[in-house]
Fold this sequence. Notes:
Elements: E1 2-7, H1 14-21, E2 23-27, E3 31-37, E4 40-46, H2 55-62, E5 66-71, H3 78-89, E6 95-99, H4 107-121, E7 130-133, H5 142-161, E8 169-178, E9 182-191, E10 194-195, E11 199-203, E12 207-216, E13 219-221, E14 223-224, E15 229-235, E16 247-249, E17 253-255, E18 258-264, E19 271-272, E20 276-281, E21 284-295, E22 298-300, E23 302-303, E24 308-315, E25 319-321, E26 327-330, E27 338-344
Parallel strand pairs: 1-4, 1-5, 5-6, 6-7
Antiparallel strand pairs: 2-3, 3-4, 8-9, 8-16, 9-15, 10-14, 11-12, 11-16, 12-13, 12-15, 17-25, 18-24, 18-27, 19-23, 20-21, 20-26, 21-22, 21-24, 26-27
Amino acid sequence: MTKIAIIGSEQSGRTALASKLGKKGNVSDVTIYDFTKSGTVLMTVDATGYPKSIKPLVTALNITDIALLCIPPTGLDTYAGECIVALDLLCCKHGIVVLTKSDTSYPSALEELKKSIKKITTGTVLENWDLIAISTTTFEGMEELKELIALTGERVDDELAQLNDLPPRVVIDHVFNVTGIGCVVLGMVWQGTIHAKDKMTMMPNDKPVEIRSIQMHDVDVKSAPAGARVGLALKNILSKAVDRGHVISNDETIATDFMLNCTLSKFTKRIAVGDMLHLFVGLQSAPVRVEKILMNGNAVDHAASGSECVLTLSGSKKVAYSETDRFILANLDEKQRFVGYGFCDYST
């Protein structure tokens, strides 16, 4: 199964492209499109709630393996730039830059736009991404784009297969109640392999659950590997006790306060002690306050853009995470909202 996030500004042509890659399914602040034919299974996620909120953007990128950054002939704007920052902070290795609405531009203009994008993305994870011009009206470039997606999907599948033997983790993105069944969740198997009848724990509310049954693409299965999108019927929990971002696992850390080894984006303003930031990990998010900043072992009152530091953050909302999880920090009051990324400091 190939899972794609389609991102960009509101006028980037992302929604038109998503509609050409699958049939519309679940709609919230992200819209999911599904395509199944001749053994090809494609899930496309349009971050429809972005740029009003950055949460849909983070959600779309965290439940997919390949990103399509859509840029129209008018070029990069503030939000395209913010998407580039987000892709870099999340270390999204696999993606394609899609020059949309090519039928409204000229070949020479598109070549200049490609040069501009290459220059801006130098030094980021996008540096070696393919660039392709497409039109959802004339269908120029669409077959080539699908071929690139298929080739990238094969590389992703090889990487995901290496995660099958790790302790299982399922990250939930939708939850609802089904009459006669009870709590049903939709989500992604981030690592490991899950089985029907497995007894696990819902985090961060630390409640034991049992996987009653598993579906993949509306078909009942006995197990699901890393990378699978699943529907799970759960025992011992009510749907109202589950939120997007909750993790089904047996080995999570639960906390409200954090100490992170952070790298700040070169595009952010400085951060200071006392600042209120927003923390994202997986599909979870929580407001946090900067209580302390350490640089080279010394306490400082602020940290500049592009610097490395250790941040002590305090919050009130429980968050579940594992040692390898990447935390993203944002300042929702800034024009470019993403601040930096970090990992939990286990040295203390």
